[in-house]
Amino acid sequence: MEYPQVYKRSPEEARAVGETALFRESHKLNIACKKAIETAIRENFDGMHLKKECLNTVMEEYGPDRMDWVLANTVRHLEYDGRFSHSNKEWAGSFDIPGINPHGYDFGQDFKVGSHPAVLDGFISLMRREREAAKAQPEKPSIRGQLAMQSVPAGKPAAKTNDREVR
User: Fold this and answer.
1) What is the rounded distance in angstroms from the CA atom of residue 38 to the CA atom of residue 10?
2) Which of 14, 62, 154, 155 could potentially form a cystine with 66 if both were Cys, beta carbons 3.0 to 4.6 Å apart?
3) Domain boundaries in the chain?
């Protein structure tokens, strides 16, 4: 499925290159994705366990790139919080997310997920594991692809058809 691209430049850079509309649209989607993540966690965490299915609705709606961007932004904003694992902090650090603008406003605050950090860390770990497992599985060829790969052996004549009428 094709998802809208995540705009990764700062608002100042977007303005300089005439892409303010792209920044705004992506920013709105980031905020909506943040809210969807919060809802998914709220509806799928029973106080002890986070259901594996909690990823599905958010992933289908916003795609993996936007989920990564929003979650990495959140961890980067809460880097001081010891409830996030070292590996998730390291993962989030690999994203080049714009920080505070010259006017002192941090647009990343708008899409920082507000769920409990320990539960959110579990959500991020689950998402990363699921994505790694999906990458490790070889993609199955489609039926059409399999049929296209089968060829008629050379030198064999095509099957004869009967021109007789069936009664």
Assistant:
1) 24
2) 62
3) 11-137
